[in-house]
Structure formats: C-alpha cells, structure tokens
Amino acid sequence: MKFIIVGMGNFGGYLAARLTDKGHEVIGIDSTMSRVEALKDKITHTICMDATELHSAKNLPLKEADVVLVAIGEDIGASIMATAVFKELNVKRLISRAISHTHETVIKAIGVNEIIHPEEETAERLAKKLEMKGVIDSFSISGGYNIVEVKSPKEFVGKSIGESDIRNKYNVNVLTIVKVRNRPNIFGALQEREKVIGVVNARTVIENNDILVLFGEMKDIEKILDLNDD
C-alpha cells in the first residue's frame, strides 16, 4: 500500500518507519528539515514542505495514495489546516490525529470521521495490562467488545479448544494462539520467541506458556482472567 503521513514527530515518524519496514511505500512529510533529515534513511520518501498550503499539497501523488494520515499533534492549528487541505483534495482515505476533545470536534466538523487518539489508546491498553492479571495486550472494538491477549490458565493446558469449551462456558472466542518458546539466539543464550499458529479449530491443543488471543466482551474475558488467580 501507499501512505502519505504528515507530521514526523515521535508518533508519525515511528509509524512511517514501521510501515516502511513492512514493505509499504511511505511518503513522510514535515515542515521541519531536521526531522526530515533524521528519518530520510528509515522511510521510503521524505519531503520537507508545509502541508497546510493547498498549492504544495496538490503536487503530492494523492491519486496513488491509499491513505493520507495527518499525524501532527503539538500544533493543533497546523493539524486542522492540513486536514482541511486534504479533505478539499478528496483523497481516497483521510485519517487525522486528535489530542483533545476540541481538536476532534473541529476535525469532525471538517467532515473527517476517521480520527485516532494514539496517546489515549496506548494508555487504555497499558491500563488494562497493569490492572488485570494475565493480560498481555488488548485492543478495544466498538460496542464494548475487545480483542485481548492473555496467558493461558492452567485449567486449559493440555486440552483442545473444544474440550475446554471456552465459547459455551465463557461466551468468548479464541481467535488464535501465540506459541512462546525459548530458542537460542546467535550468542547461544536462550531467548523467548513468539509464533502465531494461525486459524485455530476445536482440535487445537492449548499448551503451557501459550498466549490465547480472545474476542468478546470484557466482562466475559475477565472470567477467564480470574482463572489465573486460582
């Protein structure tokens, strides 16, 4: 896919570099040359320009871009102006970052409904990880549903997913399992390695140290987390 990311601060720069690492074509834009220079070897393309200027933005390959993401955080005025510019240019998909309620309200008024809150989302995931024993990571979905990675309770170890009857007992689906194994690194020291096994079925056996990727309402997932206290 082809991405244009505006704002090469901590969030935007890291996102652009990660997408580049995953094989996507990324254009990273910032009005500060030092940021552009710092990231030029980590991102497919970097451009120093003012994305709040319509005539400058018009010169970007917008028709080829699958996503334009305005990642500007600190300068709310620049974020709103850049979002308005790309909205006017009718890009295929426009995502904008908001750092406050007022910021989000203005972006919505422009007509952008896909809004991200990276700081809030990271804090929410970390809060769940810290307050709930056994949670490794989590992702909230609308309607009160969550995708949560949890350490497999001892009660499930050695049983297949069908035998554990997780869906019927807890109203939770197992999406996949992450296998955690100790493997020697290049120096010969043991190091934890994770491997996702893909789509699971009723015959898939849960083993010791497995991480279960669960989907359901948090109140139901918490019942499984309580098994780790036993």
TrEMBL record:
The cross-references to SUPFAM superfamilies, in alphabetical order and at most eight, read: NAD(P)-binding Rossmann-fold domains, TrkA C-terminal domain-like
Native organism is Echinicola jeungdonensis
Domain RCK C-terminal span(s) in chain numbering: 134-230
Q: What is this protein called?
A: Potassium channel family protein
Among its keywords, does the record have Ion transport? Answer: yes
The segment(s) forming the RCK N-terminal domain are 1-116
- GO terms (BP aspect): monoatomic ion transmembrane transport
A Pfam family for this UniProt protein?
Answer: TrkA_C
Keywords carried by this UniProt record: Ion channel, Ion transport, Transport
For this protein, the record's Gene3D superfamilies field holds: NAD(P)-binding Rossmann-like Domain (3.40.50.720), Regulator of K+ conductance, C-terminal domain (3.30.70.1450)
The record's section on InterPro entries has: NAD(P)-bd_dom_sf, RCK_C, RCK_C_sf, RCK_N, Trk_Ktr_HKT_K-transport
